[in-house]
Amino acid sequence: MNGQISPIVVGLKTVTLLLGGLITYFAAKAASKTGSRSLTYLAVGFGTVTFGSLLAGVADQLFGFSVGTALLFETAVTAAGFAVIAYSLYASDRAASLGR
Distance of alpha carbon 93 from its chain centroid, rounded? Predict the structure, then answer.
């Protein structure tokens, strides 16, 4: 284990992972049901953000990465996930404006 992590941080990370997983699940289910490409991107974006948070915690706690390195990784993956989420909203808006 790499240093001491506050139980509050662990609790909040757990809640983040559970809620992120739930949002990803519902978005993927909606995408499957409707065939919507923008909902698929939304699910991928939330899944990326959630999985990045999990991987950063694993890197820090199990593999001994420094807190700074784990934070850098988590921030980069979160940014990528949010870019996919933003694209999902753009793609949805663009398709609506084209009459699709």
Answer: 21
